[in-house]
Amino acid sequence: MTEVEVCKELTPARSAGNVFRVTTESPAGPPTARQEPSERTHHGDTVTDEFAWLMNKEDPATTAYLEAENAWTETATAHLAGLREKLFQEIKGRTQETDLSVPSRKGGYWYYTRTEEGKQYGIQCRVPVRPGETGPPSGDERPGEQVLLDGNVLAEGKEFFALGTFDVSPDGNWLAYSTDFEGDERFTLRVKDLRTGEVLADEIPDTFYGSAWSADGSVLFYITVDEAWRPDRVHRHVVGEPFREDVVVHHEADERFWVGVELTRSEKFIVIDAQSKITSEVRVIPADTPAADPVLIAGRQQGVEYQIEHHGHRFLILHNRDAEDFALAYTSVDAPGEWVELVAHQPGTRLESVDAFARHIVISLRKDGLTGLRVMCDGSTDAYDMEFPEPLYSVGLSGNPEYDTASVRISYTSLVVPDSVYDVDLVTRTMTLRKRKPVLGGYDPADYEQFREWAAAPDGTRIPVSIVARKGVGRDGSAPAVLYGYGSYEHSIDPYFSIARLSLLDRGVVFAIAHVRGGGEMGRRWYEDGKMLAKKNTFTDFVACAEALIRNRWTSADRLVARGGSAGGLLMGAVANLAPESFAGIVAEVPFVDPLTSILDPSLPLTVTEWEEWGNPLESPEVYAYMKSYSPYENVAKLRYSKILAVTSLNDTRVLYHEPAKWIARLRAVVPEGEFLLKTEMGAGHAGPSGRYDSWKEEAFVLAWILDTIGAVDV
């Protein structure tokens, strides 16, 4: 990026009216946020936060400051406008805009989503299954198509649109769906009669993801949230009656736990699960008697997680009781109690989920840093693992609403193979490719190479790194590179294909994923060694991966950009302080960069539920001191920082906008000569802009900044 002229003189304003110093129409320099000292004291430690006032979303001064930052970001990146447009057109030009997902059969219909050129959102549809039809319809063969929901119609006149619940009743007559027009994930639930197209008059606000229908479609179960945005209640609604008369079936009083609800694939049971970060509890209701009281499968035991699947006369139970990487057991449907072992615990093979079908069980697992699928035949101990040809890939079940079937649908992708959908015959083990995501413009996977390398962490742990590059990219240290990371919640960043990423690769940029501890790539222990009082391993692992890329001549420090979002944004903020010399630039998207302030405030959304991930600094002086030692905001110092681009959304309820806003304000105050940019989406949430074209434009903005930072604009 060309050097921008920043204001060298820091003269904080004290009056409320003098919020910052900036020329709004054509700013000559970045805005300077006022400093208004605010103190907090915990465990004898008093901290002064001079930018706490930015937490007041309703204060016009806050909005004005965010808009001034946006104006400065636009000015500082104005020279990239042409590149942004070019990148947007590249993404758009490689995408088949009018497209159709592979239809999935459920009962007497094929269900699918289609997109149309020029339209932002998907269209949910179905067609009747024709007599003798054994495979999904293809191409334009969609006689009798019924549009269930058109996101473009729902979003008309709205700046933002997101669909939460989309749930068709087992008889195919009713659709429960919920919408969010702000980006704050507060959904309004409605019910539509699919026979007439009528949307019932009653609607309910502030609902959460997830719903479940009774077997006959007469009753709908749904979830609402408390004031801290925690899903805590499951309600029972009789279709056609007012929502205000709905009964609360389950209320979760423990603030550490979230509730969920779903219908089993067999359509025999409503499942109500309550989960904290480390503990689970499950109840079931027979789907044919929805007014029955929930039956407890097993009471909560601190540190024990389990999930269930209905399979004939038994409930399958995937659990970690005396099994760190999880084991599979079962218990009786008629009298849930003793757990009988079905698949023993095998250290190093993490069992992640189980799916039951009439005559088969499919286990999703990971081993040696790769995902996998294991098939078990009902009534037999015979099992086999599906095999795949590439050294790096991601595979998982995809959809599969039917219970009585001998085939399953899987999704497959890698760093070079676009998203692919296969149907797998579980008896013959044959795989049929139903669709591979089209990539227009002559894309050839053979033009690219993928690699797995290993970095050495400071404690000697080997950290896997997945790498993709266009063939012919030199290993002499001259290539620009992007290193992506996350590393929290046992969430794994497995190898995946990206159309937008091609705009980097085709300019000679190397793309790498650091599979750092705190994620789940290498099993449950990998997660445990990157959370709570071991969280710093996540940050030092990432730096070790960057150093390995540099040492092995994939790139050099002055041509390397780090990128991460949400909890991965915390990672970005931490490494910005820890190793600024290792990166030319850092992209932090919706970044959790003020974690101590947030986790100290139990009134904020998600805080109490997060204590089992980060620790409770309110109660523990040790946790408080540890979090303070790595918090990006707390540790801003007079360093020579990398260039930083922070991207956030005003209505984000997961990582609140003020965390990156405060972070950038403090960075600029402490290091006024630094190059720090803040871009706030003023009408979006955690996932950013909702429409696909708007999302592509946002990605083009970030990619242009990256290419400029690493000097690859004209490559």
Which short descriptors sum up this protein?
eight-stranded mixed beta sheet; serine protease; Serine_Peptidase_S9A; Oligopeptidase B; 12 helices; 715 residues; alpha+beta; seven-stranded antiparallel beta sheet; protease; 18% helix; disordered N terminus; 38 strands; Peptidase_S9_cat; single chain
Quick description:
It contains twelve helices and 38 strands. By secondary structure, the chain is an alpha+beta fold. Strands 31-32-34-33-35-36-37-38 form an eight-stranded mixed beta sheet, sandwiched between helices. A seven-stranded antiparallel beta sheet has the order 8-9-10-11-12-13-14, with no helix packed on it.
Helix content: 10-25%
Cα shape: globular
**Estimated radius of gyration:** 26 Å
C-alpha termini separation: 15 Å
Query: What does the largest sheet look like?
Result: 8 strands, mixed
The count of DSSP E runs of length 2 or more, i.e. the number of strands, is 38
Number of helices: 12
Structural class comes to alpha+beta
Mean pLDDT: 93
Strand content: 25-35%
Strand order of the largest sheet: 31-32-34-33-35-36-37-38
Low-confidence stretches: 1-24
Mind explaining what this structure looks like?
The protein has 715 residues and is of the alpha+beta class. The protein has an 8-stranded mixed beta sheet, with helices on both faces. A 7-stranded antiparallel beta sheet has the order 8-9-10-11-12-13-14, with no helix packed on it. Strands 3, 4, 5, 6 and 7 form a 5-stranded antiparallel beta sheet that branches.
